[in-house]
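From the shared-data thread, chain only:
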Amino acid sequence: MIAAEGTWVGSFVLPLDVTLAASEGERVVLKGDGSANPVLTVMGGARSSVRNLQIDTSGGPGVVVDPGPANLMGVSIAGARKAALTASCTRGACEGETVVQNSQLTTSATGLIVSGARVRVEGGRIAQIAGTGLTDGSGVVAFGGAHLTMNGVTVEDNQAVGVLVDGSATHAALTNCVVKDNRGRGVWIQRATDGGVSITGGEVTGNALVGLGARDSAGLTFSGVTVQDTKTVRVNLDLVNFEDVGDGVGLFTGVNDVKMEGVICRRNARAQILVDEIGPSIRVGTPDVSGGLFRVVVQRTSATVEVPAALLDSPGRLLTVENSAQSVP
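Structure, as tokens:
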């Protein structure tokens, strides 16, 4: 189905195995009608695709794919009151993978939500996400048994967490992604105990509080990723005392079975790597660490951490930790 050039107002449903596309060089805009319904609902199917469309949500919900699979290529979604793009699995079996290629998700309450679905994001940008709700402001949120793959994606300039991975059965693999300049944590992993989270290559840079962090998770692999220039957040200890917290990699309460190889941590404001209250099987390898106040700090744990002794720093006190779990939509 080829959409004619112009702006089309309404709440649209793309049936099973249907393609909706703009002709080459033509501008096609789907504009929300101000209702509580998504601008576009994609029912999915092996031949379902949306190509080269602009989605103007007019403050309503953006695009929903449920249950998938579907292909979105060159799609721009902006201004959603909730998520720009939601991929979920509430209707029948989740078979196949939804693929999002070279698309732009911007200026919405959340960029991409993946709940129980299989999604692969190739290239593109998720940016300028912000909102007033408790769960608003994150670029990417994967939870509820989601399987998320991201290759060469830029996640930047968001109000909260760049990429949030939550839940025991949730899997995520980030390869050569850039997660930068988010005003919250860069990549945050919580309650992911199924051994299915990996970050390979790419950069996590200029975020706040912690660049790449995890709590209550197991089976994590970080390889060849650069974590740098994490900014401080002032954490109040009581009514009069505070500490400025800004660490590169943070492994916190309940984390175990972590492999870090070839990780580069530079110029993060406080510790380049902070290990606190963790479980067994933490291998840091031989990281490239420099700048900041401390290199590698290990505290409040009896578990053995495999890290070169020459890289360990002792601050002479316990470093304050802010590792609270983040709310998901």
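Residues 89-308 form one domain.
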